[in-house]
Amino acid sequence: xxxxxxxxxxxxVLPSLGEGLVVTIQATVFGSLLAYVLGLVFALLRxxxxxxxxxxxxxxxxxxRSTPLLVQLFFLFFVLPDIGIRLSPLLTGVIGLGLHYATYxxxxxxxxxxxVPKGQWEAARALSLPAGRTWTAVILPQAIPRVLPAxxxxxxxxxxxxxxxxxxxxxxxxxxxxxxxxxxxxxVEPLTMAGILFxxxxxxxxxxxxxxxxxxxxxx
Amino acid sequence: xxxxxxxxxxxxxxxxxxxxxxxxAPGEFVTLIGPSGSGKTTILRLLMxxxxxxxxxxxxxxxxxxxxxxxxxxxxxxEKHQRRIRKRIGMVFQQxxxxxxxxxxxxxxxxxxxxxxxxxxxxxxxxLELLELVGLSDKVGxxxxxxxxxxxxxxxxxxxxxxxxxxxxxxxxxxxxxxxLVAGVLGVLKNIAKTTDITxxxxxxxxQFARDVSDRVxxxxxxxxxxxxxxxxxxxxxxxxxxxxxLHAVIDRAG
Lengths: 220, 255
Hints:
- The complex is a heterodimer of chains A (220) and B (255).
- With 220 residues, chain A is mostly helical.
- Chain A is built from 9 helices and no strands.
- Helices cover 78% and strands 0% of the residues of chain A.
- The termini of chain A are far apart.
- Chain B has 255 residues and is an alpha/beta fold.
- Chain B has helices spanning 40-47, 79-86, 104-115, 120-133, 149-161, 179-195, 207-213, 231-236, 241-254; strands at residues 2-11, 14-24, 29-33, 55-60, 63-64, 67-70, 73-76, 89-92, 167-171, 199-203, 216-221, 224-229.
- In chain B, the strands form 3 sheets. In chain B, strands 8-9-10-3-11-12 form a 6-stranded mixed sheet, with helices on both faces. Chain B has a 4-stranded antiparallel sheet with strand order 2-1-4-5, covered by helices on one side. In chain B, strands 6-7 form a two-stranded antiparallel sheet.
- In chain B, helix 3 (104-115) packs across helix 4 (120-133), helix 3 packs parallel to helix 5 (149-161) and helix 5 runs parallel beside helix 6 (179-195).
- Chain B is globular, with a radius of gyration of 18 Å.
- The model of chain B has no long low-confidence stretch (mean pLDDT 93).
- Chain A binds chain B through residues 117, 119-120, 122-123, 125-130, 133, 137-138, 141-142, and chain B through 48-50, 83, 86-87, 89-91, 93, 95, 97-102, 110-111, 114-116, 159-160, 163.
């Protein structure tokens, strides 16, 4: 076995990994924001009064959930340009991650909304609160705090899935590590350092989510 | 003020109300009594449009609630029509149903501002008056979770009154309260009933309260009014066998 560890080399790869880290964080932050917003939109559309809207959203969610994220990324990356939509690889990745995770956050929001007691709806109706106001002032302010931990967990899993964006030429932490390794033919240090970076970010994040769970009750 | 004509309500195969007729005059305080499951609460929920009628018509304040006129014929009312009539009706629930995400003051001002279009200042001025009326002036900034059940229910009463309803529905408003908190809530309601011209329709198991405030008491069984009268007569000399049994059961339980 030819195993060795070179500290000087390990430190020297950090600036490259840092660039990758910025990409990873961008993809996770914007992907999560998209998933949070779109998931809520899906959850609300699934309660639409119109049968057709409910069905289309349901079909879309089921379809996205039953296909691999990798395939969806390839689809966005190779098919969108064919129909004239040209996006940067990172933006394509953000949309791919956001859409994929929105189908999961939609379910989280649904559970959160259904967890609001029926009496709240009835009180709002008895007070003649307009429907929009019932949502924004009564239902969502009660539903959203209790889904925050679950949303946080999805952000952590999205963070750990960003290396998939490598396949559409987005260099995240792992992509950067791979590139450094390929040019010097030494992969141990860059990949290990990449792993440590993931650990350093996702462990505190999961502690934060656990704190959210304690703060807002229900675990998911 | 309220007129039920041949009202039918079913839940699946179970007929809750069968061809129910009754009238409540403006300013009258009417109490519905009767065994659990006899359909009393359903009557309030139909008036609040939390349930739909399966037959018959409901009128409130001289207009159809369950139906509306379209091209000369009566059709089931739509949401817009119901919304207009519903503004004249308020309801206080067994479980209070305050909005836990808002402080007390905003629980009371939210609907007047958003549904009646009152200015925030005007709604707050009214809310403070109402909080004084229910004896909770010191709880303006409190959150519902910091209040006892009795205090929450008094806020809920203030919240319903803030909409200036012509009709107030009371759905077993003291059933979820600890016994020592019941009197405070009933005292507030008694005071409001005596000092306003609001029409009350009340479902309760508090017979003493029913006796003190009601102009008329309706005894319900199996979705029908089987006996009605002024409280002094109905509570002391009930004619119907079911009424006698029910009053015995309730009074035995209480004693």
